[in-house]
Write a structure and sequence with these properties.
Blueprint (H helix, E strand, L loop, with lengths): L2 H20 L3 E3 L2 E7 L5 E6 L4 E5 L4 E5 L6 E6 L5 E6 L4 E5 L4 E5 L6 E6 L3 E2 L2 E2 L4 E7 L4 E6 L5 E5 L6 E6 L4 E4 L4 E6 L5 E7 L4 E8 L4 E8 L2 E6 L4 E6 L2 H11 L6 E2 L10 E8 L3 E8 L5 E10 L2 E8 L6 E9 L2 E9 L2
Parallel strand pairs: 1-20
Antiparallel strand pairs: 2-23, 3-4, 4-5, 5-6, 7-8, 8-9, 9-10, 11-12, 13-14, 14-15, 15-16, 17-18, 18-19, 19-20, 21-22, 22-23, 24-25, 25-28, 26-27, 26-29, 29-30
Length: about 350
């Protein structure tokens, strides 16, 4: 090994060592609370639409809609890709990743019709996507996220859903990704016995917590509700749900709640039907108001109206009694005021 290569190795070791020393991670515990059979022999990605699971299978080249309670197939259609390695739901449409052609397909979830096709860039941060595996797909309310495997340079990256360009990236290794409304979660098969699920603050790429799962053939993950996730175990053709305890949820909040500025996140999912998650952060204690309005400026729901301590918060907005259309949600805390728009689609 020459001096140049050695210098790079020592440089990465120094970065990782400093990072681990400065950012102790919170290890979370979990319980398996449900299990259903996978619809095909080689499930390679899954997503949750608020009511049902969707699974893409690399062997059958099919996308399946599943009843999450019984595992029965409610609907299915062909995956447009030759090598489907990711699936996500943006609140209205499904997105399917084809690793062979490095394409993203926007799909009508009722018919499977291709509504749009995006080509991934040839490289990210100087690393060729054409020569490396790309897998996993997630939606954060604004961007798509995927990941590529390239040794030390393995990264997760965000994708503009309008043109396929890469907006940001950070170093990590992931087989699949999902978003919980605030943070990004990645799944990585670490050893022949263990898989790691990690939580990351985006877009900074700061890892804050992880779960150590004693399964080694996990190929997909999706966030369903609260602190519960569905995962795919391809070795036994099964889907299972894990849920964290109240103590671990509090530990997780403590690890991620150090905030320095006000922020109102885009609701997730968006568009939505009938419920969506609104998240925000406040850097200091104070009175917080979070109110939803229609386009006439009328209050349709008051979600928060109380004194809160500094940190990150999430609340659910259920619009089951409201008509389709555009709605606005406004946060006020001290001198901070922000309004975001969201879309309810029936």
């Amino acid at each position: 090994m020459n001096k140049v290569k050695l210098s790079y190795v020592f440089f990465y070791i120094l970065i990782i060592t400093n990072y681990l020393q400065a950012q102790p991670l919170v290890e979370l515990d979990f319980n398996v609370v449900a299990s259903i059979p996978a619809p095909g022999p080689s499930s390679s990605g899954l997503t949750w639409d608020g009511n049902n699971l969707w699974v893409v299978d690399d062997s059958t080249k099919m996308i399946y809609k599943l009843n999450s309670s019984k595992g029965t197939v409610l609907d299915s259609f062909n995956s447009p890709g030759n090598n489907p390695t990711g699936l996500t739901y943006d609140g209205e449409y499904l997105w399917n990743l084809d690793d062979t052609e490095k394409l993203l397909f926007k799909l009508n979830r009722e018919s499977g019709e291709i509504l749009d096709t995006l080509k991934l860039p040839n490289e990210v941060n100087g690393v060729s996507l054409l020569e490396n595996d790309v897998s996993g797909l997630a939606w954060d309310g604004v961007h798509l996220w995927s990941a590529f495997s390239a040794g030390w340079s393995s990264s997760a990256f965000s994708i503009n859903p309008n043109n396929g360009s890469v907006d940001t990236s950070f170093f990590c290794t992931a087989n699949d990704l999902t978003f919980d409304g605030i943070n990004l979660w990645t799944l990585h098969n670490q050893t022949s016995y263990t898989s790691i699920v990690s939580s990351w603050i985006i877009p900074s790429g700061k890892e804050i917590a992880f779960l150590r799962i004693p399964y080694h053939s996990l190929t997909g993950i999706t966030h369903s509700h609260n602190f519960s996730f569905w995962l795919v175990d391809s070795s036994i053709d099964s889907l299972f749900m894990i849920s964290m305890s109240t103590t671990d949820i509090n530990n997780y909040h403590n690890s991620s709640n150090s905030v320095k500025y006000f922020l109102l996140y885009q609701n997730y999912p968006n568009p939505f039907n009938p419920s969506t998650q609104l998240s925000y952060q406040i850097p200091k204690d104070g009175f917080v108001s979070l109110v939803v309005y229609n386009t006439l400026g009328q209050v349709v729901s008051t979600l928060v109206n109380e004194h809160q301590t500094s940190g990150k918060y999430s609340v659910q907005f259920n619009a089951s009694n409201l008509p389709s259309g555009v709605y606005f949600y406004k946060i006020e805390s001290g001198r901070f005021t922000k309004v975001n728009k969201m879309l309810l689609l029936r």
